[in-house]
Design brief:
The complex is a heterodimer of chains A (about 140) and B (about 725). By secondary structure, chain A is mainly α. Chain A has 2 domains: about 5-60, Beta-grasp domain (Ubiquitin-like (UB roll)), CATH 3.10.20.30; about 70-135, Orthogonal Bundle (DNA polymerase, domain 1), CATH 1.10.150.120. Chain A has helices spanning about 5-15, 70-75, 85-100, 105-115, 125-135, and strands at about 35, 40, 55. Chain A has a 3-stranded antiparallel beta sheet, with helices on one face. The termini of chain A are far apart. Chain B is α+β, with helices and mostly antiparallel strands and about 725 residues long. Chain B is built from 18 helices and 29 strands. Chain B has a 7-stranded mixed beta sheet with strand order 3-8-1-16-13-14-15. In chain B, strands 11-19-18-17-12 form a 5-stranded mixed beta sheet. Chain B has a 4-stranded mixed beta sheet with strand order 20-25-26-29, with helices on both faces. The longest helix of chain B is centred in the last third of the chain and has 23 residues, at about 525-545. The termini of chain B are far apart. Classes of the chains: A mainly alpha (about 140), B alpha+beta (about 725). Chains A and B meet through helix 2, helix 3, helix 4 and helix 5 of A and helix 1 and helix 16 of B. Bound molecules: FE2/S2 (inorganic) cluster (2 copies).
Chain lengths: ~140, ~725
């Protein structure tokens, strides 16, 4: 693997796993959020070699077969997305949040989700969805 | 006692389950940048480092021989191809003159993006710099540098281009009604203020992407453009291929906010596909989104209004100067101004008005459409202006608005008579929803802003097919940019036919399969495509009735049953809305925080309750970003906020709570009485906050964004004045 290849390129171009999105390309928007051995990281910044041998979870890995995760269902019910471009990253970040805090407070949600930009929802629906999934 | 079966709940009252929901939460939803073709090449562009220059020569020899490079094209290879939505004034690749930093002069197609970018860097371009102009007022001077000496050659869609007084004018309009001079003579007081609003970006998270390939006679285009049929027509002219041989496919769009009606790369990709025989893809880097794509227009707005002793408007005069940037290509409307450029006092009774608006060429990145074009600029100015008038006249700001809010039979600022008006009701509702009595905390203040936005207009059609299993498929050309269009169509059809929403599938067709549609935008989808869905469902019902059968019987014996639903909405109608926002200001730093926000909006019948709420909440935070933090900094024509770290948009930590009060019982012209909601929430946030700041600490910010620095410096000046009245 070439040292300068980013994880996002390997995911999207080599593996055809296009659920992970690229927005800003500089680690600010969170559209490319993935879990690498459980750690929340930006795939646009991460050299692919660093993920070699690790378990990488992308949005494609959140449902169990046909069954959506409670968070995925809540995003649909509560208006957690509109255009959906930020959604894979939001879901990955929120999955990591719920793994850390089973019942996150508003402040914990804000703090944790600050690295995932959404231009559509104004974040209200995202907050509702996370709370509904945690309830 | 009679027992009645409880009626099934109205479908419209159950929250919708988004049709594309599963795809969007599993990563299965495809966006343009997700689509690849075998043998696909990647494109990279060469942009001008100068804001205004003559292109002397382009030397692509070195680039052509680099590894992996399949084609390099320069302006001379595409001349005279220009693109644009209404006026085609933007060269696909500049051959004689560049007009802003980033204007493209050459393009490379190569096996990999890295190879394409390396080759693009190796293209040697010689320029001869020309005097540049960055300020729109300066561009209107008699001796200003002229940007478009060849304007006579440009294609203008739909008749002849309106006359212009100066060659640097893109579009110019003067609206006048009533006797303005008499109105001012009769005024008890006349107020005049000037406001300014900077460039801001739509800042969708998905950068533009496109993929073009040629198969036999047919040109295929996959694009982030939200108006695929319009792109097909524009492209036909630009590349000289009949529209019937161009197929445009818009998959899910990752945010639009008005910006993605203009395509930038598709035309050059066609020339590369033709030169190489291969599919070619381009995905804009976010840095390019911020430096070359069409932003909201900056504006300078001078308002002059006369009022009688009670604060009632007697006459109004305005001049609005929009910075249009280097090309007018991004503007879809006939006047080549952003939409609604003269609606300075939207939603008020204005007996006499003279409003002039002009969009001007400058050597900066082009401006185009952005969510509710013109309105954030004009509403910030108008609602700040009225607040200043209320203060000076010592009239309560809400009272002043109530006195002037348009009523049925009165004339608005555009000279239109409203046959019906919800303006007084919206303001009364706002009054009831705003906390009253009690003392506001020190350095807290509440501001309000009121405005009106049209209900979308246009015409479209779609096809409904009843299948043998009793399901219905709707084929539409409306793209999904996140507003919930497909789910809205599904629910309208299901409700009219009295069936489960799950039995209605909505399929989006490309321009080769679906019926012509004007594209998402202008708050048009619900009232127009929604009416088409309703019409289709009614026609299907009528066919079933003719057969004397139930829907399921008809499906078994007569499927496939195909009807075309047509929808049109041409009435000039408005949805009105008002905010009341309370801020808390820190006098030391000038920073402030929104502690309460209420939005009252007249949205008509709600089809998708989750989506309507989302449009208003999302519009509020979008408007808040553009009101208090966003500004595309441009220095001598160079954008200096070139990434999403420098061009800051709101994060979840910046989103304040919002109370929504929806007025849903005043039916609009859409299906079942629906109106529009997508552009109601964003335009008025800036004024409500500026008014709240003034109420809190007595300083007035006359320009967006409303930053801590501006407030702090106004507070300092005020303190100094208080300390030394001389
Ligand atoms: S694309 Fe990786 S953080 Fe924006
Ligand atoms: S849903 Fe569009 S950016 Fe978040």
């Amino acid at each position: 693997m070439r040292a300068d290849r980013r994880l996002i390129d390997v995911l999207r171009d080599d593996l055809g796993s296009t659920g992970t999105k690229e927005g800003c390309s500089i680690g600010v928007c969170g559209a490319c959020s993935v879990l690498v051995d459980g750690e929340l990281l930006s795939a646009c910044l991460l050299p692919a070699v660093f993920a070699d041998g690790s378990v990488v979870v992308t949005v494609e890995g959140l449902a169990q077969g046909d069954e959506l995760s409670p968070l995925q269902v809540a995003f649909i019910r509560e208006g957690g997305f509109q255009c959906g471009i930020c959604t894979p990253g939001q879901l990955i970040a929120a999955t990591a949040l719920l793994a850390e805090h089973r019942r996150p407070s508003d402040a914990e949600i804000r703090e944790w989700m600050m690295g995932n930009l959404c231009r559509c929802t104004g974040y209200h629906g995202i907050t509702r969805a996370i709370k509904a999934a945690a309830a | 006692m009679t027992l009645t079966k409880p009626a099934a709940p109205d479908l419209l009252e159950t929250p919708e389950w988004r049709i594309e929901g599963r795809d969007k939460v599993t990563g299965a939803a495809r966006y343009a940048a997700d689509i690849a073709r075998p043998g696909m090449l990647h494109a990279a562009f060469v942009g001008s480092p100068y804001p205004h220059a003559r292109v002397v020569s382009v030397d692509a020899e070195a680039a052509r021989t680099m590894p992996g490079v399949r084609a390099v094209l320069a302006g001379a290879d595409v001349r005279p191809a220009r693109f644009g939505r209404r006026l085609q004034d933007w060269p696909v690749l500049a051959w004689d003159r560049v007009r802003f930093i980033g204007d493209r002069v050459a393009v490379v197609a190569a096996d990999s993006l890295e190879a394409a970018e390396a080759a693009a860097a190796a293209v040697a371009v010689e320029y001869d710099e020309l005097p540049a102009v960055f300020d729109p007022e300066a561009a209107l001077a008699a001796d200003a540098p002229m940007l478009h000496p060849d304007a006579a050659e440009y294609t203008y869609f739909g008749g002849t281009r309106p006359p212009r007084g100066h060659p640097n004018v893109q579009g110019h309009v003067i609206h006048e009604h009533g006797d303005v001079a008499v109105g001012f003579e009769n005024a008890a007081a006349v107020f005049e203020h000037e406001f300014s609003v900077p460039r801001v970006h739509q800042a969708y998270i998905e950068p533009r992407a496109s993929l073009v390939w040629i198969e036999g006679e047919t040109v295929h285009v996959v694009t982030t453009n939200k108006a695929p049929f319009a792109l097909r027509e524009q492209m036909a002219v630009t590349i000289g291929v009949p529209a019937a041989r161009i197929v445009v496919d818009t998959p899910h769009v990752g945010g639009d906010f008005g910006g993605k009606g203009l395509s930038l790369d598709e035309f050059a990709l066609y020339f590369l596909a033709r030169a190489t025989g291969r599919p070619v893809r381009s995905v804009l880097r976010y840095a390019d989104e911020l430096q070359i794509s069409n932003t909201r227009h900056a504006a300078r707005i001078r308002l002059r209004t006369g009022v009688d002793r009670d604060g009632r408007i007697t006459a109004h005069q305005a001049r609005v100067v929009f910075d249009g940037g280097a090309y007018a290509a991004g503007k879809p409307v006939a006047g080549l101004l952003p939409g609604g450029p003269t609606l300075t006092l939207a939603g008020y009774h204005v007996p006499a008005a003279r409003v002039e608006a002009v969009a001007v060429y400058t050597n900066t990145l082009p401006a185009g459409h952005a969510r509710a074009p013109s309105q954030p600029q004009l509403t910030f100015a108008a609602e700040s202006h009225l607040d200043l008038i209320a203060r000076a006249m010592q009239i309560d700001p809400l009272e002043l608005r109530e006195r002037n809010a348009i009523r049925a039979g009165e004339t608005d600022v555009d000279g239109a008579v409203w046959h019906d008006s919800l303006a007084p009701r919206v303001l009364a509702t706002l009054r009831a929803a705003s906390p009253s009595g009690g003392m506001a905390a020190r350095d807290n203040g509440r501001g309000l802003a009121f405005s009106a936005r049209h209900v979308g207009r246009g015409k479209t059609s779609l096809t409904l097919t009843l299948a043998a299993d009793g399901s219905i498929e709707v084929l539409t050309g409306v793209a999904d940019q996140g507003g919930g269009a497909h789910t809205m169509i599904q629910r309208v059809v299901a409700r009219e036919l009295g069936i489960d929403a799950a039995r209605v599938r909505v399929r989006q067709g490309d321009t080769g399969h679906a019926n012509v549609d004007p594209g998402v935008g202008g708050s048009r989808v619900t009232p127009v495509a929604g009416n088409a869905a309703l019409d289709g469902a009614r026609k299907l019902k009528a066919r079933i009735a003719e057969l004397g059968k139930t829907l399921d019987q008809a499906a078994r014996i007569a499927a496939p049953l195909v009807v075309t639903g047509e929808g049109e909405q041409n009435e000039h109608l408005y949805g009105v809305y008002a905010y009341s926002i309370e801020v808390s200001v820190d006098r030391e730093t000038g920073s402030f925080r929104v502690v309460d926000a209420v939005l009252v909006a007249d949205v008509g019948t709600v089809i998708n309750p989750v989506a309507v709420r989302g449009q208003l909440e999302g519009g509020f935070v979008f408007g808040l970003g553009q009101a208090v933090m966003e500004e595309l900094h441009i220095e001598d024509g160079r954008v200096t906020t070139t990434n999403l770290a420098d061009y800051k948009i709101p994060t979840i930590a910046d989103a304040p709570p919002l109370r929504l009060v929806l007025i849903t019982d005043a039916p609009g012209p859409g299906p079942f009485g629906a109106k529009s909601a997508g552009e109601l929430a964003n335009p008025a946030v800036g004024a409500a906050i500026a008014n709240a700041i003034d109420a809190a600490v007595g300083v007035r910010v006359m320009s967006l964004p409303i930053t801590a620095e501006k407030i702090r410096s106004l507070l300092r000046t005020k303190e100094l004045r208080a300390a030394d009245p001389e």
